[in-house]
Amino acid sequence: MRHINLVIVSVITLMVVSCNLKKEEVKILKQSDFPAPPVAEVIPDTFINFGQQRVDNYYWLKDKNNPKVIDYLNAENIYTDSIMASTKALQQTIFDEIVGRMKEDDESYPSFKDGYYYYSRTEKGKQYRTYCRRKGAMESPEEIIFDVNAMAEGKPAFIFRGYSISPDNSKAVYFYNETGSYAEFTMKVKDLASGEDVGFSMDGVASVAWANDNRTLFYSLIDQTLRSSKIYRQQLDATAGELVYEETDARFGTYVYGSKTRQHIFIASASSTTSEERYISADRPADPFKVFLPRVQDVEYSVYPHKDKFFVRYKDKENLNGMIYEMPLTGYEDRATWKLFMPHDKNVRIESIDILKDHVLLELRKNGLAEIQIKPVSGEGKTETIAFPEPVYTASLSGNPEYDAVTFRYSYTSLNRPTTLYEYNIETKETEKLKEQEVPSGFNPDDYTVERLWATAPDGVQVPMAVVYKKGLKKDGSNPALLYSYGSYGISSDVYFSASMYSLIDRGFVYAVAQIRGGSDLGEQWYEDGKLLHKKNTFTDFISCSEKLIQDGYTSSDRLAAMGGSAGGLLMGAVANMRPDLYQTIVAQVPFVDVVNTMLDDTLPLTTGEYEEWGNPNEEEYYNYILSYSPYDNITAQDYPNILITGGINDSQVLFHEPAKYAAKLRALKTDDNILLLHMNMDSGHGGATGRYDGIKDTAFEFAFILNRVGIDK
Q1: Could you identify which of 107, 510, 522, 699 might form a hypothetical disulfide with 526, taking C-beta atoms 3.0 to 4.6 angstroms apart as the criterion?
Q2: The dihedral formed by the CA atoms of 140, 145, 151 and 157, expressed in degrees to the nearest 10
Q3: Residue 333 scores a pLDDT above 80
Q4: SS3 of 423, please?
Q5: CA 397 → CA 371, 412, 423, distances in Å?
Q6: Residue (of 351, 362, 353, 261) closest to 306 by Cα position
Q7: Active-site choice (541, 544, 686, 698)
């Protein structure tokens, strides 16, 4: 469900097919051209809620300790492999193209922090990154902090989630797992001089912060539902930690972090609508934590310390896009001391903030597009703005980890512009390009057209959509197309450059990203209008975008594919039920489709924290509304498009049984002769294969399916 933003980026980044302009007639095989697919056993379970009866024939598939469940998943994978056998050459071609379009030996641009330059690199043939640093200058000897390839050797799945350096630069606390789960990580501490692990290790850690004594760690632990619920304090040589805070409200998760100024340790507790923070001095780790501002329902705030004051991003029901206050370091409990630094603007959403000694950096979203502003810390003087000329793009503020800096970084990308890292000097007003994404096989952005379209939703709302295609394309309805979106949790469906995607476009594909309600693409109200009892706007917005592509001649319903993952998989399931006639193919990646059952089971990961997103189905109004769109519950005896469903056996966000049950019920009820496949990763979790080359194989598989369904086999 949540935390799909990494999946979205990796999916968009890897979209690809092989280059071949010649169109050939290829017979598109149907389900009846192959042996019969697996049939899941029907074992009815009956549920009664608010006087309504639901019968779930596949509820039994949720137990992965049941050998019959594993047998069924294996049978589905064998069937999928047999159907896709004819595309093996195409998959290999796609894989080779993706690899050919990426710089295999690459290095991130170094970032300076506390006397060291930090960077990471990839090496040809290796699945994972190597993390390094150099002291004082890039000419200094390289220190390898983590060679993730060595750490992951021999393991079918491995996620390295990152690391945090101690204040004296001598140690690194780091996180990893060998399951592919997005929620369950082991934390260890590495001595950077010896290369050995030191102190204690802990499973189930979600966040960490160093105290300034370099030996006290604060960390949060997840509970049985994978909710980060407790904060502990522990010294490296201690055998056990001390509980310093427990979040008892099941809607909230709690996390710990250190401030950029190294003055404070903060504990943040947050639900989807409400937040609260606590803090202590990082120099006095034994002190009790103090509440910054007591929580108030539907009020969210985040604290950004400056050495002379606090900046606080503040949001409530009347100020959805957020505002910024500055407050004194002491006495801020008196609201009379608050000074409005940036007022609320109903047309401008505050996306992110970075604090420097003399300036506040702001990433804003206006009319669905990013803008970067630089304001003096004093609030007085001229505000500088970095604006961007293209009709559709994504710009992201990277800031600067050094508090005293007079420069900051930002990245820029669009559908036909490689991702580029820039550094802006506030004093000289000069911009320097530091690094541009390389496309070894070559790429000319002028060969392609990028447009921003607006579709009209059933309620009259205008919904934006970004589109890219090869120049010269005729809008006669004959082109294949892929429409992607997400539309939940306020996560915007931003556009990104992917050189690999252009193999689709060079074959005549139109690629589009729908910026539908449920995301925050057009501000926080855009999100509010696509959640809870307004969730169906997400689905009808996507349908309207699909219809726009067809009506304007970009594609036709027998050439249109749709793709979405996790909560975007919910979107796929909903539109497949509502308008199966609009799509030729649907790819539902790790789809959240069993909404009623999942949201009624508060023992499952993430459920209680989702009440403010979908609603609590223990309340009749929400139960009825969720039931009216839940994809699994609304499968009917009708024709469906070709559908590829993916899942991960160790998925912590959308448990594996959701895609499994979804496939089983679709097989039992669909009346068409189209292909339906379930591709279950039996080693990993929400993001699929964890190595970069293995991830490319997954993408090649998905795109081979889409191409095969429109008759492209080379």
Answers
A1: 522
A2: -110
A3: yes
A4: strand
A5: 9, 9, 10
A6: 261
A7: 686
Tokens 């308008």 -> residue: 579
Direct distance between the N- and C-terminal alpha carbons of the chain, in angstroms, rounded to an integer: 35
Phi, psi at residue 186, to the nearest 5°?
Answer: -95, 135
Pairing mode, if any, of strands 510-514 and 462-470?
A: antiparallel
Tell me the pTM: 0.93
Helix, strand and coil in the chain, % to nearest 5: 25, 35, 40
- 267-320 pLDDT per residue, tens: 999 999 999 999 999 999 999 999 999 999 999 999 999 999 999 999 999 999
Q: Which of 359, 651, 684, 698 is catalytic?
A: 651
- 574-592 pLDDT, tens digit per residue, is 999 999 999 999 999 999 9
Yes or no: say if 519 and 438 are a contact pair by the CB < 8 Å rule: no
- At residue 326, what is the residue type? E
Count the residues in the chain. 714
Give the integer Cα–Cα distance in Å for 2 and 654: 9
Predicted confidence (pLDDT) per residue in 549-570, tens digit: 999 999 999 999 999 999 999 9
d(CA 160, CA 174): 8
Query: Is 657 annotated in the active site?
Result: no
Q: Mind listing the pLDDT tens digit for each residue in 20-58?
A: 334 445 689 999 999 999 999 999 999 999 999 999 999
Coil/strand/helix, residue 435: strand
Are 71 and 65 in contact, with CB atoms under 8 Å apart? no
Q: Which two tokens stand for residue 669?
A: 């009820």
Written as one string, the DSSP assignment of 128-142 is: S-EEEEEESSTTSPE
What is the rounded radius of gyration, in angstroms, for the C-alpha atoms of the chain?
Answer: 25
- Distance between CA atoms of 339 and 652, rounded to whole angstroms? 42
Contact by Cβ (8 Å): 12, 565: no
Q: Which of 259, 414, 566, 652 is catalytic?
A: 566
534 as an active site residue: the answer is no
